[in-house]
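Format is sequence with structure; example below:
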Amino acid sequence: MKYTSTLKTLLACSIAVFSINVFSAALSDGIIDKYVSSINQIKSSDNPNVQSIEGSLMNNGMSFDVDSDGKIALASQMLAGLESAQVDALEDVVEDAGFDDLDEWIDISNRVSAAMLAIEMENEPMDMSELTPEMMQMMPQTMRDQLEGTLRMLEAAKDVPQADIDVVKANMSKLDSL
């Protein structure tokens, strides 16, 4: 009996903690405004480490693919390609913009990017029916890997929460200005 009561209490606490994390991270107009402000601060930063981020991304490339959980995570992939001094400088900028830390900003950035991709797919669906396995085999491996990653992202876009899509749609004019 005591075991069942303890188990129920632990389960209730786990659900409560999970719920708080999920609901506190919901996208909103205010979070989008803070995100847009952070991007503008990144663009206008005079910190050489922040200024060098775009160059690093261009030189190192970025993988357009889903993460290990099958979710669209472009910001996480971008972060993985940066040097530690760039990451530290980026963290300073996003904290100045009002984010608690870089992890929060990355999460919001991933979700905004995923919602924007989902909206793009909704507005202009891609027909990949003509892409046959034979055509894929004829492509160079690098190109095939990139295309397969992009296809996984397009599939993951179908699972973006509607609430995120709705908030991003409502703020698209702000996001398009970036």
